Amino acid sequence: MERMESRGARPARALLAPLAISVALPLAVYYALRAQGIAQWQALLLSSAIPAAHALVTAVVRRRAEVFDLLIVALLAVSAVTSLISGSPRVLLLKDAGLPAVLGVWILGTLFAARPFAFQFGRRLRDPVAEEEAERVWDGMPEFRAALRGLTVLWGGVELLDAALSTLEALSLPVDVVPVLGRFQSIGLIALLVVVTIRRSRAFRARHGLGLFGVRPAASPTGEEIPGRVGA
Prior knowledge:
Layout: H1 2-35, H2 40-62, H3 67-86, H4 90-109, H5 117-122, H6 128-140, H7 142-172, H8 178-208
């Protein structure tokens, strides 16, 4: 029983830790500093330094730097310097629009790669055997390719929408409102994206007998194996 609880707790910790570091802690620090009378740009800079510092520490511990981690640090550095020169805290707010903008462009850019982002994401869920099955399905089933490309367009488009809304908010709304609004906006869009993705995957499985991100081959209705099929 203890082992099962431990296993169940691992995914929860893996999800909650990034949310705490990237969302909850920066927000708490920002509004705590503002309550102490710290200037907006200083509070934004100090609170934004938390996820950037975490990215640097993670890169040192792993002895390798992820592209997304480097992006966080680079955007903070550029926005901090620009904010110091301009004296406007809104430049630091635009940093939060830069992350989804770059991510959205990158996701859409994978449409021109050998495998789109949605297929690459599925590799995190599949074991080696299922990955071989997925490769065969990709080569032999146009509907499978179209579905994953469609999800890639959806994911990239939502990230660009988040970036556009964040830019509009950073330039027009009161500075102290933007941090909390932007964080909940991003979380809400991601949650909506997850729901739509799950529904599309289930619909595809119901129609074609295989899932888009599965880790196990699906049995055919007649009990015969269908080459290249991957379960939901």
